[in-house]
Specification:
about 375 residues; alpha/beta; 7-stranded mixed beta sheet; 10 helices; globular; binds pyridoxal-5'-phosphate
């Protein structure tokens, strides 16, 4: 037990101090302790019961239905499941895209999360990386140039609704205009909204990325804006795409429509408890509070001359990379010359003030 106590102590300390990752900290799921002594398994399709009835699929479906509604769809047209995280949701979206259009080319920006390249490799899909603009958004001129000489191929657009480093949002309208200009008839649009899936519906202006805009699939991480001790996520797709790949498996008596067979039964409970506690209004209030903190951080950092900026009203504040000491102390993610703070729920003004104070001291020393 001594080893476990040490690990617990380390994680507890480090949980309190990290500022650079999009993981909400304001959760408690102690009420679910009784489930920890039970076998739980949501094996297979959430809508299809298994011979093994130790699942939380009825709760999982409530989560999917809530998110479908938030993403302007109903369960009639959309299907989904609770994944192990954003990476799995992206893999799933790309898998359905490939099953729809086997000879396609995937277009995604260079600011895309590192896991997507690996997903494409596993799926053996042709793909082209599109340049990014300075703010992390796709460079539409580059996309157009790449696409105009490949009009004969079905196109799969992998869009970022919040890039990892700068929270940039790819502009669906601009991409649709390019699709129209080159008369591309066969295309599929996947939105990676790992962090912003729960945020963007409440942003003003609201980015276009949901089912009302005709997108085919959307991946969201559960442990990011919602928060939780176990990575999780949700993937929602047009029902017709899921139907195309559905296979019935007699061993488990359910449909094999998900990436993994056995699936987590606990995380849907966490997500549902978040939904029940917050509802749409509560989620919106969380978004507004986080945006307010991000505005404060941006202003304070700019007062120190650290070139802070945000995409629109993002929760991510990008600024000049400080010393390794500060990056390590506050667990700030960095890339090249920039670092960022992500103002997730659970991070309060007093936490960022500690960082700002450290930065003030560094500025004085320079
Ligand atoms: C834009 C984006 N996509 C995908 C992922 C991967 O999500 P996960 O860590 O939930 O697998 C991340 C993680 O940071 C991300 O920022």
């Amino acid at each position: 037990m001594r080893d476990l106590n040490k690990v617990l102590e380390r994680i507890s300390t480090n949980n309190a101090s990290f500022l650079g990752y999009p993981l909400a900290k304001d959760f408690s799921f102690k009420e679910f302790a009784p489930f920890l002594d039970l076998c739980l398994n949501n094996v297979g399709d959430p809508e299809s019961p298994s011979t093994l009835t130790i699942d939380t699929k009825e709760i999982e479906l409530k989560c999917i239905s809530f998110f479908a509604n938030m993403l302007s769809a109903t369960m009639k047209d959309v299907w989904g499941y609770v994944t192990n995280g954003g990476t799995e949701g992206n893999l799933y979206g790309l898998y359905l895209a490939r099953e729809n259009f086997p000879n396609s080319v995937v277009y995604y920006s260079e600011s895309t999360h590192y896991s997507v390249k690996k997903n494409l490799h596993m799926l053996n899909m042709n793909n082209i990386v599109v340049r990014s603009q300075q703010n992390g958004e796709m460079d539409y001129k580059d996309l157009e140039q790449i696409l105009m000489i490949r009009r004969d191929k079905p196109a799969i657009f992998f869009l970022n609704i919040g890039t990892t480093m700068t929270e940039a949002v790819d502009d669906l309208d601009k991409i649709k205009r390019i699709i129209q200009k080159y008369a591309i008839k066969d295309y599929y649009i996947h939105c990676d909204s790992a962090f912003l899936g729960c945020v963007a519906p409440f942003a003003d202006p609201k980015p276009k990325f949901d089912f009302s805009e005709g997108v085919d699939s959307i991946s969201i991480s559960g442990h990011k804006f919602i928060g939780g001790p176990i990575p999780s996520g949700l993937v929602l797709v047009k029902r017709q795409h899921r139907n195309r790949i559905a296979n019935s498996i007699s061993y488990v008596g359910t449909l094999d429509t998900t990436i993994t067979g056995s699936r987590n039964g606990l995380t849907p409970l966490f997500i549902w408890s978040f939904i029940e506690k917050n509802g749409m209004d509560g989620i919106k209030a969380r978004v507004l509070k986080s945006q307010k903190l991000a505005r404060y951080v941006e202003e304070k950092l700019n007062n120190l001359g650290l070139n802070a900026w945000r995409n629109n009203d993002a929760l991510t504040v990008v600024f000049d990379k400080p010393s390794s000491y500060v990056c390590e102390k506050h667990q700030l993610a960095s890339e090249g010359n920039i670092a960022h703070i992500i103002c997730v729920p659970g991070i309060e003004k007093e936490h960022v003030d500690v960082l700002i104070n450290d930065l003030v001291n560094e500025c004085v020393l320079v």
